Amino acid sequence: MSGYTALPNITPASGTRWAAAVVLSAVLALCSANLPAVAADSTTTTQAVQAADLLEALPIKGRAPKTGYERSLFGATWADVDQNGCDTRNDILNRDLTGITYVNSVPCTVKTGVLADPYTGTAIDFVRGTTTSSAVQINHVVALSDAWQKGAQQLTTEQRTAFANDPLNLQATDGPTNQQKGDGDAATWLPPAKGFRCEYVARQVSVKARYSLWVTQAEHDAIAGILAACPGQPAPTTVAPAGASTVVYYANCAEVVAADAAPLYAGTAGYRSGLDGDGDGVACEG
């Protein structure tokens, strides 16, 4: 995708050249050849950045009116933007589910699979069908309507289509949970599994930086509060496939403690709902 979008026009909180370089590097790292490009100084090198630092580079403004918002302004629903012959919904199901079977010999359209849902900390069986597919839905980490009210009106249709189909901004989750979230931001909705909230808001920050969107004061404060509980949380640029991590199984919390792995958080190796007695997304925390 061609063209440049502006960098956030604010000064990092520390006011130092180092902080400015970190923020600039982060935005540069969040861009790729298929996403809206961001101009950067040629002397800047890409490095890992903390989500809390990147958050401080996002402009803070009020919501723009929702007037004129339509889903179609973000392109065709689940377009095949990467031209791999598979639509975005199935791309994300293929990334986030395990034990996948397909409707035919082409490894694209998912027929069945299992989702370890990071939003709820539960395992969900996916079965493709008119009455069953909705059990697993694809959530926009930064909702389209929220983006529209916080800068996306200034993006091109091509950029909005990239935003709506960006894997970093998409997560397979429980259908009712996706509906409950609606277009809420971090100030009004967070995943029920508390152990995933740090990663969730870090992804929101990364997406908003990538597409030059802003946050409201309430949203900024909510995200900052969550990130304060997980210092060093990185601002992600990609999401690893569910099957990419090594399978780790603990029979009980005693094994988790013996392995010096406690506590376990939803979405991380070894976590399963059977170890999470109170269902808060954090297992073996006692």
Structure description:
- With 286 residues, the protein is α+β, with helices and mostly antiparallel strands.
- 28% of the residues lie in helices and 13% in strands.
- It is built from 9 helices and 9 strands.
- It has helices at residues 17-29, 51-55, 88-96, 144-148, 157-164, 175-181, 197-210, 217-228, 253-258; strands at residues 4-5, 37-38, 97-102, 110-117, 122-127, 136-140, 170-174, 264-265, 282-283.
- The strands form 4 sheets. A 3-stranded antiparallel sheet has the order 3-4-5, covered by helices on one side. A two-stranded parallel sheet has the order 1-2.
- A hairpin with a 4-residue loop joins strand 4 and strand 5 (122-127).
- The protein starts with a strand and ends with a strand.
Q: What would you say about this model in short?
A:
The chain is globular. With 286 residues, it is of the alpha+beta class.
Q: What is the count of DSSP helices, taking H or I runs of 4+ residues?
A: 9
- Helix percentage range: 25-40%
How would a crystallographer describe the biggest sheet?
Answer: 3 strands, antiparallel
Helix/strand order, N-terminal first: EHEHHEEEEHHEHHHHEE
How many strand segments?
A: 9
Low-confidence sequence ranges = 1-22, 32-46
Beta-strand proportion: 5-15%
How would you sum up the global shape?
A: globular
